[in-house]
Design a protein that fits this description.
With 74 residues, the protein is mainly α. The chain is built from three helices and no strands. It comes from Musa acuminata subsp. malaccensis (Wild banana).
Length: 74
């Protein structure tokens, strides 16, 4: 039987999730600046790639917590 609740993994991953939250805030700032630029000039492929990368940075805390929770057995 596989349990989904792994509090130990969550507690161990919390400091890293807080660090990735800072990275997420940086990603949000890049996204806010890059989105209007990519709308104004859609021919700039590098800005579009940068915006997609910023979205992944925003999702970083969720990825970190899921990874840590998956590493700890029930």
């Amino acid at each position: 039987m596989c349990c989904e609740c792994r509090p130990l993994g969550w507690l161990l991953g919390l400091p890293f999730a807080l660090l990735s939250l800072v990275v997420s805030i940086v990603g949000a700032a890049i996204w806010i600046v890059g989105l209007p630029v990519s709308c104004i000039c859609p021919c700039c492929l590098c800005v579009t790639i940068l915006v997609e990368f910023a979205v992944e940075l925003i999702k970083a805390p969720l990825h970190v917590m899921r990874w840590f929770a998956s590493q700890i057995p029930c």
